[in-house]
Automatic annotation (TrEMBL):
Its cofactor is pyridoxal 5'-phosphate. Keywords: Aminotransferase, Pyridoxal phosphate, Transferase. Pfam families: Aminotran_3 (PF00202). This is alanine--glyoxylate transaminase.
Amino acid sequence: MTKDLLGRHRAVMPDWLALYYEEPLEITHGEGRHVWDAAGNRYLDFFGGILTTMTAHALPEVTKAVSEQAGRIIHSSTLYLNRPMVELAERIAQLSGIPDARVFFTTSGTEANDTALLLATTYRRSNTVLAMRNSYHGRSFSAVGITGNRGWSPTSLSPLQTLYVHGGVRTRGPYASLSDEDFVAACVDDLKDILGHTRPPAALIAEPIQGVGGFTSGPDGLYAAFREVLAERGILWIADEVQTGWGRTGDHFWGWQAHGRSGPPDMLTFAKGIGNGMSIGGVVARGEIMNCLDSNSISTFGGTQITMAAGLANLSYLLEHDLQGNARRVGGLLLERLRAVAAQVPHVREVRGRGLMLGIELTRPGTDEADPVAASAVLEAAREGGLLIGKGGGHNTTSLRVAPPLSLTVAEAEEGAAILEHALRSIQQEPAEHL
């Protein structure tokens, strides 16, 4: 049945639509931190639909809210007053830390970033944007135009002039050997130098932890230092919180808070986990920025009642059960467990991240060269052992991505770590020519 579905998929879907695994997986249902495939195999899910199933699969509170809302009305568009949309916007505005916050809902992180770029370029009357090397911000024409990751940038055509700044990757690049303090200083000098060579940019957009790039980041305080330089020139700071938001990093509710010394961002974008699988994205911005557009606009599907009901139930569950604290505690245990394993596996260059957003960078043993074949082998071996993980990376890097639902238990973390340990050790036993 799966082979038949794969053939049908290939016949009607684009060739560039990526699928994991040599024998792609059809996931049919899930519960808690587990999912099942069409053959009845059960897996511990450490990727959550690309960090989207944030709390748990089939969470009863979310399922109930969606079912009850579907029985009333599913959709009406933003042309009509929408109580669930206003209620969720109120909660997100309050949680954002942005003064006079306004919220606009979209259906994805891509669309959220696209909206933020529209607002920033309009507000600043500039189409120049600063972005980070190794970054990823989505699939749309404008989002691809600011993506600093060649593997996810299919065209160089763009409505924007994009300049890329150092700092998103701590352990690679020209500043890798510096101390954290000197690293930040060097990145700030690089930013100042770029600003001396271009017309005033609209904004800097940055992921506090780079997702598709392999869960890389600069030192805490990097974007606070950038913020000081930007604020002097009126340049906006957009925090792309599509993957780092809602407490996933454990230490903070938003990723920007690790860089909060100079205040909150002017805008933040969100998506993925807030809907726990429902299509919710959005932008939070200061009122004067959000209101800078001088023509009408709507969103047909952004903020629709059924997704807002899911978001409200999911956010309430996350806050009431302190899933941020759970991500900090269980994620810390998982990080140390994986680092202990990595110390014995020559293919592992680094285990990094915070909370339940962890990356394992793989290289050819004894070198700093990426090893995508080894990454694929670990992915396959983990699946064979009953564990689903992700992968990523940017320029000459290969990383495994570990991002379970935030309700992960200690026992499940230990189980997943044991499977991942076996998968990592298995690649050492393969003949070199196969790796």
